[in-house]
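Quiz preparation item.
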């Protein structure tokens, strides 16, 4: 059973629609990490673990994707399985802001990036989104102009985005600088540093530190009440037990970049290549870390959503 929005363009799962109608806590999740990020079967196991921890913390999970051309908020278990099948009969395209309309028009299936997920979540009335790490300014941006549309979405869509910072393969100082330029408040969850995805430390300062989910929710409300039209970025460090030392990560990244240059890999193929090489170079440690931070972020996002729901009702 599903419910559609008034525009009849987005399909919202019935349990999500009921929760939204009652003003209850809902957390949006992306689907690119399932279809194009983590390998099978870790991808579907992680997706289900994220949804389960959100339920345990009193919120409703709503994984977002495109099914037969229709944006869906709250993919069913069967649909999640299709997204997770890398060699299945169904082609699942990676969907960003630039090709979202085309995939809809072609009645395709699409796994939504952070940017596309944020746009659909906002259109459906959701206020909290959880992911692993956002995209940002690439290390070669001075030559390639490669800057993620995630930053464009964060600048314009009023959603709390819970993440472990930006992906470690990016230029983190430039990413933080551009977030400031775009007016996106960068909050550290119990930290004064911008997390570096696999690592807890980057030596880059956040705009403010919050100690509780309720503090984060209240700051988001203050941001929007003061005229802020974009997102609030809540950065949650990876749990210490799963952290990879920043120096180890940087050495692995430089090695992977060297391999990409030697093989003349460019454009959209660079990121998946680098992530695949990091997995090999670190003996699978990056995969374990990625899974841990995704579930941890989902748990914090659920608590923020519960607090935001309570505050908006009061």
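Solution:
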């Amino acid at each position: 059973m599903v419910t559609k929005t008034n525009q009849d363009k987005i399909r919202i799962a019935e349990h999500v629609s009921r929760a939204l109608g009652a003003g209850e806590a809902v957390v949006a999740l992306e689907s690119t990490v399932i279809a194009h990020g983590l390998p099978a079967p870790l991808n579907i196991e992680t997706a289900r673990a994220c949804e389960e921890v959100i339920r345990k913390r009193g919120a409703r999970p709503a994984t977002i994707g495109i099914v037969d051309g229709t944006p869906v908020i709250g993919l069913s278990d069967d649909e999640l399985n299709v997204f997770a099948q890398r060699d299945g009969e169904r082609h699942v395209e990676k969907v960003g802001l630039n090709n979202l309309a085309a995939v809809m028009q072609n009645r395709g299936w699409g796994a939504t990036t952070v940017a596309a997920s944020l746009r659909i979540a906002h259109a459906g009335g959701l206020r909290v989104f959880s992911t692993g790490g956002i995209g940002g300014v690439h290390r070669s941006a001075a030559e390639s102009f490669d800057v993620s549309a995630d930053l464009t979405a964060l600048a314009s869509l009023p959603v709390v985005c819970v993440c472990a910072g930006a992906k470690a393969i990016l230029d983190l100082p430039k990413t933080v600088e551009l977030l400031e330029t775009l007016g996106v408040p960068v909050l550290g969850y119990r930290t004064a540093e911008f997390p570096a995805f696999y690592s807890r430390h980057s030596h880059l300062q956040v705009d403010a530190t919050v100690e509780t989910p309720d503090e984060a929710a209240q700051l988001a409300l203050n941001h929007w009440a003061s005229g802020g039209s974009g997102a609030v970025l809540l950065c949650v460090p990876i749990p210490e037990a799963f952290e990879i030392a920043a120096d180890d990560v940087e050495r692995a990244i430089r090695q992977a970049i060297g391999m990409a240059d030697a093989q003349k890999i460019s454009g959209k193929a660079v990121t998946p290549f680098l992530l695949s090489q990091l997995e090999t170079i670190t003996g699978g440690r990056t995969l374990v870390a990625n899974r841990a931070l995704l579930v941890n972020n989902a748990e914090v996002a659920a608590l923020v959503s519960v607090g935001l729901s309570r505050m908006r009702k009061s």
